[in-house]
């Protein structure tokens, strides 16, 4: 069953992304057209958590190559949104695309590597910025991994992260992060 496809085992993997409401809206598109197209073209299952939450979880499941396709489409969609939002602003430098993965804390060690060696290697080989949150997400055993850069850098970075996650499966039970409904306003410190 597991045939080796380009640069990785062709196994089914699940990657979870943490997004703000308007990012989710951008991915869903008018009447769900964008996400439908992403599902069809990538072949990945893309699931979006219910939410009147400020944050939603987008779950992408499928063979690794389907996941990369879905990621590419999301990254390019976000880049397009940035470009569109800049067309009427005076900013000259284009901000990077930023995606936040949700990763079981037990896998973050492998992702960071001894003395940060692995994460440094990923940064250097992909050109993407990668940051693993020091603290777990509320009521979970997961941490946020923030990736930013050009869509191509992000896709390369996700590929490498997938390889690490496949090579070192999570240990013990993972308590998945579930965003809380917005009852009280959440103030994010430092624009994270």
UniProtKB/TrEMBL annotation:
Keywords: Repeat, RNA-binding
Pfam families for the chain: KH_1 (PF00013)
Coiled coil ranges: none
Organism domain of life: Eukaryota
InterPro entries with a match to the protein in the record: KH_dom, KH_dom_type_1, KH_dom_type_1_sf
Secreted recorded as keyword: no
Occurrences of domain K Homology (ranges): 11-79, 95-166
A GO MF term: RNA binding
Full protein name: Poly(RC)-binding protein 3
């Amino acid at each position: 069953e597991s045939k080796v496809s380009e640069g990785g085992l062709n196994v089914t993997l699940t990657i979870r992304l943490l997004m703000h409401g308007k990012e989710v809206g951008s991915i869903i598109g008018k009447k769900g057209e964008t996400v439908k197209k992403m599902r069809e073209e990538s072949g990945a299952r893309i699931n979006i958590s219910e939410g009147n939450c400020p944050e939603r979880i987008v779950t992408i499941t499928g063979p690794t190559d389907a996941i990369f396709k879905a990621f590419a489409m999301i990254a390019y969609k976000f880049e397009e949104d940035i470009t569109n939002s800049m067309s009427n602003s005076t900013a000259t430098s284009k901000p990077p695309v930023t995606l936040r993965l949700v990763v079981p804390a037990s896998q973050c060690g492998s992702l960071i590597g001894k003395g940060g060696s692995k994460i440094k290697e990923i940064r250097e080989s992909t050109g993407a910025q990668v940051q693993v949150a020091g603290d777990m997400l509320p009521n979970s055993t997961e941490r946020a991994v923030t990736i930013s850069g050009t869509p191509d850098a992000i896709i390369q970075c996700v590929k490498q992260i997938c390889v690490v996650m496949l090579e070192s499966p999570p240990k013990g039970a993972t308590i998945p992060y579930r965003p809380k409904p917005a009852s009280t306003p959440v103030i994010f410190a430092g624009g994270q």
